Automatic annotation (TrEMBL):
Descriptive protein name: Glycosyltransferase
CDD domains: Glyco_tranf_GTA_type
Organism this protein belongs to: Nocardioides zhouii
A GO molecular-function descriptor: hexosyltransferase activity
Pfam families: Glycos_transf_2
Domain of life: Bacteria
Span of domain Glycosyltransferase 2-like: 12-170
UniProt keyword list: Transferase
InterPro entries found in the cross-reference section: Glyco_trans_2-like, Nucleotide-diphossugar_trans
């Protein structure tokens, strides 16, 4: 680039609903970006608190910020509305209760300028109390890559977030990308389609500070029937895209490691869940893993066993298993078979009669055995 060429314009879409306590911090982090050439649209998604007023105040203060006030349509609809409104060579999505580190957009845009890729993704940290912690699985996924295709690292499909990425706007439009509307967990189907359609850069740098709020979607979600129905729907959409892509290797990694990744949250809820919820949990597990079984998945051993019990419709035993696991200080105990030398989970007979369980549902993998 010549000395006089202008930095590329980045369009930032900020959906906002009920975030009067967080929006100021979010916008301040945008103003603090070392990449200065951006325009942002805040989509006030029918907020009933002061969110809309705070957004308007920021728009008065900085001409790069505009506000759209809409009726409440949910996160996907707000993002889609903002995408239509915002200009730019590049496109980013920023959730209004989160915060950007100062070099986030500079790092992502610089990678794309250098590589010519369709989008770039960085790692994230999340607040745990007062500390910012990088999830170990994000660090593993974000070993550096440039100009990659999904075959180069199929597990990257587990990086489902909308907001740690910058997209080339021409790619976003030509690939026909939008966010699903009227359903929660809207990030995964769209990020899956992006990874399947484009070339991408993977950065080890942290490009996002994620706040998991008490009472937010992420917190209140898992125990309701509608929530679980939404989760199955977005998993179904994502799997359909992967199957249409046509790579057996990518599909196997996706089904075992990505699609199964958050099921442990739902297994923990089996004790005390209504019967309708249990039936929906089992139906989804059989639909998505019935051909292959969760015993082959990337879940931790005790949750592979839980998945097998769901498949077998053994609700009383998964309930007992989850209640027992909740009392443990560390991983579930392991024992070695004297005859074969193989290691497996050990579960007390009062919780589960192991003689009624398929051996593969109790088996441990080499890396799970601690001698």
């Amino acid at each position: 680039m010549s000395l006089f060429s202008r930095a590329p314009l980045l369009g930032v879409v900020i959906p906002a609903w009920g975030v009067e306590d967080y929006l100021d911090d979010c916008i301040r982090s945008l103003l603090a970006q070392t990449h200065r050439r951006w325009e942002a649209v805040i989509v006030d998604d029918g907020s009933t608190d002061r969110t809309g007023e705070i957004a308007d105040e920021w728009a008065h203060r900085d001409s790069r910020i505009t506000v759209v006030h809409s009726v409440n349509g949910g996160l996907g609809a707000a993002r889609n509305l903002g995408t239509v409104q915002v200009r730019g060579d590049y496109l980013a999505f920023l959730d209004s209760d989160d915060v950007l580190p100062p070099t986030a957009y500079a790092d992502l845009v610089a990678a794309l300028q250098d590589s010519g890729s369709d989008f770039a993704t960085g790692s994230i940290v999340r607040w745990e109390g007062d500390d910012l912690v990088e999830p170990p699985w994000m660090r593993r996924l974000h070993r550096p890559l440039r100009g990659a295709r999904v075959e180069d690292r199929p597990e990257i499909l587990g990086d489902v977030f909308a907001w740690n990425k910058v997209f080339r706007r021409s790619f976003w439009d030509s690939a026909g990308l939008t966010w699903p509307e009227g359903v929660r967990y809207e990030d995964q189907p769209t990020t899956t389609r992006a990874f399947l359609a484009g070339r991408f850069d993977v950065l080890p740098e942290t490009t996002y500070h994620w706040r998991i709020r008490e009472g937010s979607i992420t917190q209140t979600r898992a125990s309701s029937v509608q929530d679980l129905a939404d989760r199955w729907e977005t998993k179904r959409q994502s799997l359909a895209s992967v199957r249409a892509y046509g790579s057996a290797e990518v599909e196997e990694v996706f089904v075992d490691r990505v699609l199964a990744g958050d099921l442990w949250r739902y297994f923990l809820l089996v004790p005390g869940a209504p019967e309708e919820w249990w039936r929906l949990l089992r139906a989804g597990v059989l639909e998505l893993w019935g051909q292959r079984s969760l015993v082959h998945s990337g879940l931790p051993p005790v949750h592979r066993l839980a998945g097998w019990l769901v498949e077998e419709d053994r609700r009383a035993e998964i309930t007992a298993l989850m209640e027992w696991v909740a009392t443990l200080d560390g991983p579930a105990p392991r024992v070695q078979d004297v005859a074969t030398g193989d290691w497996r989970l050990w579960v007390p007979p009062s919780v589960l009669d192991e003689t009624t369980v398929a051996p593969e549902a109790l088996a441990l993998r080499d890396h799970e055995v601690t001698h």
